[in-house]
């Protein structure tokens, strides 16, 4: 049974606007022991156990009391046994504070210490519970107290805003600030764009990785210093005892500049803070693009995942993400535009050389191949321009621009607009009208709907089937010769294509010419490598073939529809049982 506020064993509380004090219960005759679980200048939460008081009552009985406060605040003064107990009978004094804003373990409002385990857990936004000894008696009533000796506080109290390292803000305040920031951008006709770094905007190696992969004594830095051509195209910096070399994706500068005009740019990388800062200086030395909106894995609570909620606490409806991986965005995958990985140095050296193998980023992409002979710097020089034809950023920007335009031209109320829905529709336009059957792609024991290629196809707007159907337009296979491939080859208007066709549609965000991925006899359709005509003529010819095949598909679908109607009419006439129908047979024949 808990004591009421009028109980003789209840301590008195005195309140003011800024402070709160707890005094001894009236029945305390002598303090035997007092054990504090907090210290002065420590931030506390409401109903957090602060200490335990053992005393002799005025009736001569020994009693124990658990000391709690029904308000959050900062402990200013704690009772010590050698203090004069007769004067004020104070147990402790607390400065009232809700700790709505903290920075690096200090409350910005009361200057109290927020580094205790309880406060750290609370500020992370985690569910906080306080447990007490069974049968404990308190210095004041606890309304939330349950029979299981537990008090539970709100689950969502604070947000750790990642852009400000070590900064937390009360959940409601965070929502207000996020809403105000979103409104500020909307007034400027801007959305938010989050960019990954490695394999998205650039590729980085270091000397250590280069020597380890090739078992060489020579540093890549020596190759770099002897090549003015490399120095023109590849950036270098020193970190953690090794030189690092960075190759930006082609047309990156132009891409960032164009994006900054319609988006507020953020960087979210799983690289460490020192690395992110170095790249930030290279990309944005004037801080006109990203300012301080650069996040690294050092600020992430979970280095295996990325989340938008701690950067955009109010809403992700106006936020797009560009990343070469989608699996790290478990809660925000619908915001992500996946870009083809940029593996510049892997192409040059023939092996994967990553300095940034944080979990969930590039470690699973790394494959050692130390048997391969490294190329000379002359070969490397000649390779620079070979990979400048990468046009992924231009492709991505075109999609970004379309989503931005649709968002601000939408007739919907501003609160209902959502870039996720717009992006989904744009993707579905890519393979809209395609009916795909897979062959040799999905393992027999796997549910087709869970396979990555099935998901890619449906995300791009295609309808997928497990078996050949009359309305099939594409047979996507890994190899020739399967039963499905043989059947599809004899079906008019059906494209039999390699699986890479589907992946190319995703990469270029556009339906690709099926003839470039034709899975059949090379003699049937011309390929660029074997065709004697010039490239424009090849493209013209293939376009004409593609249009012809599309026409055949439409005609085939039309004829199937007429045939279905004919069957339906025959079934209808049979069910009538009318003898007059027999006499009309000769006049009902139609030539299709």
TrEMBL record:
<keyword id="KW-0539">Nucleus</keyword>
<feature type="domain" description="FCP1 homology">
    <location>
        <begin position="186"/>
        <end position="364"/>
    </location>
</feature>
<feature type="compositionally biased region" description="Low complexity">
    <location>
        <begin position="572"/>
        <end position="581"/>
    </location>
</feature>
<feature type="compositionally biased region" description="Acidic residues">
    <location>
        <begin position="582"/>
        <end position="592"/>
    </location>
</feature>
<dbReference type="InterPro" id="IPR036420">
    <property type="entry name" value="BRCT_dom_sf"/>
</dbReference>
<dbReference type="GO" id="GO:0008420">
    <property type="term" value="F:RNA polymerase II CTD heptapeptide repeat phosphatase activity"/>
</dbReference>
<comment type="function">
    <text>This promotes the activity of RNA polymerase II.</text>
</comment>
<feature type="domain" description="BRCT">
    <location>
        <begin position="426"/>
        <end position="519"/>
    </location>
</feature>
<dbReference type="InterPro" id="IPR039189">
    <property type="entry name" value="Fcp1"/>
</dbReference>
<dbReference type="InterPro" id="IPR036412">
    <property type="entry name" value="HAD-like_sf"/>
</dbReference>
<dbReference type="InterPro" id="IPR023214">
    <property type="entry name" value="HAD_sf"/>
</dbReference>
<keyword id="KW-0378">Hydrolase</keyword>
<feature type="region of interest" description="Disordered">
    <location>
        <begin position="570"/>
        <end position="592"/>
    </location>
</feature>
<dbReference type="InterPro" id="IPR004274">
    <property type="entry name" value="FCP1_dom"/>
</dbReference>
<dbReference type="GO" id="GO:0005634">
    <property type="term" value="C:nucleus"/>
</dbReference>
<dbReference type="Pfam" id="PF03031">
    <property type="entry name" value="NIF"/>
</dbReference>
<dbReference type="InterPro" id="IPR011947">
    <property type="entry name" value="FCP1_euk"/>
</dbReference>
<dbReference type="InterPro" id="IPR001357">
    <property type="entry name" value="BRCT_dom"/>
</dbReference>
<dbReference type="Pfam" id="PF00533">
    <property type="entry name" value="BRCT"/>
</dbReference>
<protein>
    <recommendedName>
        <fullName>RNA polymerase II subunit A C-terminal domain phosphatase</fullName>
        <ecNumber>3.1.3.16</ecNumber>
    </recommendedName>
</protein>
